[in-house]
Design brief:
25% helix; alpha+beta
Length: 177
């Protein structure tokens, strides 16, 4: 594993709108996926409330369960992304077409104040500021977060997006390694 010299606060947006055999629903898939991620990274994870939201872009897909996880790690951004993709695959994620329904989606949306822009990784996530289902739960776990490029607070960014479809379906929780 590649480590940075110091730990960074990382934000991971997650979502699911498909279940798997052995899981009651998307919430159960998310909880198990985050537990697996905590074990892989040996990290404690603070998790936002879980929100039900409409698919983006609008479609006839099932509703999503979304949220944001906050963790501290010394794992560097690219290896961290590799771990996220590995956990997605463990939980049945198939990357077929853009915006397809999914069992588990784990997106690295921020790694401290790190800025990366290359063909494999963009930090902060390039569309997070457009997504109420990311910004609202981000405020649950990191209320003072500021966009590292624009220096704009999440509380200001959320004012520019529609959050009217978001419904809290579970309170915030923690997952331990």
């Amino acid at each position: 594993m590649q480590f940075d010299e110091k730990s960074a606060v990382c934000l991971v947006a997650f979502g699911s709108n498909l279940s798997l055999p052995g899981f009651a629903d998307s919430q159960a898939v998310i909880r198990a996926g985050l537990s697996r991620l905590a074990a892989v990274l040996q990290a404690d994870i603070q998790v936002s409330a879980l929100y039900r939201s409409n698919p983006v872009p609008p479609s006839d897909q099932p509703l999503y369960v979304n949220g944001v996880a906050r963790l501290e790690t010394r794992v560097a951004p690219r290896p961290l992304l590799a771990h996220l993709l590995s956990v997605e695959r463990e939980f049945g994620r198939e990357r077929s077409v853009a915006n397809a329904a999914r069992t588990l989606d784990l997106d690295l949306i921020a790694y401290g104040q790190t800025i990366v822009d290359d063909s494999n990784l963009t930090l902060p996530h390039p569309r997070m500021h457009e997504r109420g289902f990311v910004l609202r739960p981000l405020l649950d776990v990191e209320p003072d977060w500021r966009h590292p490029v624009w220096k704009t607070s999440a509380s200001d960014l959320i004012k520019t997006v529609d959050t009217s479809d978001l419904e809290v379906i579970a309170p915030p929780f923690r997952v331990s390694a």
